[in-house]
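Hey team,

Filing this mostly as a record. A colleague (T.K.) asked me to run one chain through the structure pipeline before their review meeting, and I want the input and output archived in the tracker in case anyone asks later how it was produced. No errors, nothing strange. Just documentation.

Input sequence:
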Amino acid sequence: MDYKNIYIIGIGGCASSAIGEFLNNQGLIVSGSDMSEKKELHDLIKKGITVHFGHKKENLYTNGKPDIVLYTPAIIALNPNNPELLEAKAQGIKTESWEEFIGDFLKKQGNIGITVSGSEGKGTTAGILTAILAGTQFDPLSILGAKIKNIKDSNDSNIYIGEGKTYILEGDEYNRNFLHYHPDINVMINFDYEHPETYKNFDEYSQAFADFFNEMSGKKKLILRATEKIVNFVNTYTFSNITWFGYPEEIRKSTISGEIYIIENHRVTEKGNTFTLRKTDSSFQADFMIPALPGYIALNGTGAIIAALEVGMTADVINKNLQNFKGMVRRFDLYKTNENGVFITDYGHSPGAVGYILKEIRELFPDKKVHLIFQPHLFSRTYNFFNEFVDELAKADTISILDIYPARENIAHWSTKVNSQMLTDQVLLRNPNVTFAGQAKDIVKNMENVIDANEVTCFIGAGDMDQYYEGLLHKFGCKPWF
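Output structure:
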C-alpha cells in the first residue's frame, strides 16, 4: 500500500469502522474522528486506533501529518465545511471517500470481487456468503455495514479478513457509492426505489444500477432474483451473463431465459430454513439448511449459495459451512423474554422492510400480538414515502414511533415538513393503538411500562436506538434465540 498514515473522518460509521480495522490490521497507522461516542469506537480504541470525539482540524496531526484523509460521504452531506476536511485540503493532503479508496485498492489486488446490491438484503446476503467462503480456498476479505454474529473468535464483526483470493462488499447505492467498485460477481435480491436524497425518481435510481453493472470487471456475472421489478429493469437495459433465481411462482410469471435456479420445498421452523435448490435444466439439485430466521433468509441464502457455486465451491461444502452462520446483528435478531415473549431487533428502514418484517412475525408467531417500536431513518425518506410508511405501520397491533433519526440531514430544514408526530397522527387514523414515543435516548423510560413481555416486541430502524434499547432487553431477561 502506498500510504503509511491514514486519518478517517467519520470512523464510527457502519462500514468505515471496518475500513479502519482493516487498515490497522495491515500495519498502517490509523486514527480518526466521529461526532459522538459509541460502542464501535471503543472497540477500535482497544485495537490501538486513536479516535477523537468531535471534529477539529488539530485532530489530523495525532500521529503526525497523514498521507491521506478518508471520509464518509455523510460527512460532506452533513457539513461541507467540516474543519478536518478543510484543513486537509488547505495543507495539500489527499482526500478521498473511503468507498473510492477501498474500491481502488481492491481493484489493484486482482482478486475475485463479489458485491451484493439492491434496496434490501445486502448485509445479510453478504454475511451468509462470508460464512460459506470462510476457511476455504476462497477465504474472503469481507467489509460490511452489518455485523456477522460469531464470525471472528466468537465475536460479532462487520469485517472478516481471510487469506483467500476473494473479497465481499455491500454495493451501497447511496450517493452512487457503488460506482467505485468493479466486482466480477454481483447478487441482487430486491429492487425498490430508495434514497430519494440521491435520486429524484426510480428512473435515476435504475440508471445508477445499470451504470454499476456495466462497469463490473471480469466475467460480469449477475445473480438476480426474478422479481417483476428486476426482470423489467433487465429488459430495459442490455445485460448478459445472468443467473436467475426465485420461487416457482416468480419463475412462472417471469419472461426470463438462460440459467435459472428454483427454490422448492421451503420450510420454516423455529430452528431455521430448509429448502431445495434446483436448476431448470436438471443439471443441479441440492438440499440446504440455514440455521437462522426469518423465512425470507432463504432468498438471501440462495443468492449467496449461487455466488459460492460460481466461484467453484461444491454443494456439500456450502451446506456444511452454512451451519456456521449464526445470523446478523440487528437483522431480524431474535430474543426470548423471561415470560415466553419475543423481542426482535432489525435495521429495516423502508416501508417495504417494515411490511416484510411484520409478515414474517405473523407467520412465525401467529398467536401473539405485535408491538412495533419504530425509529424513522432520514427526514427525506420519511417525507417521500410518508403514505407508504403509514400503510405498513398501521398493520401492527401496537405502534410506538420515535423521533426521526436525521443521520446526515439538517433537522432545522426538515422538521417543519415532516416529523414523527405527523406520522403518528396519520397512523392514528388507521389504528388507535399508536403513540409518539419521544427520543431514542428515553426509550427505556418511555417503553418499560408499555411493553407486554408475553407478546412480540419488534424494534425497527437504522438509527441510533440500538445504543439505548439494551436496557429493555436486560429488564425483560432477553436471551438469544439461537
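Quick notes for T.K.: DSSP finds 18 helices and 22 strands in the chain. The mean pLDDT is 96.
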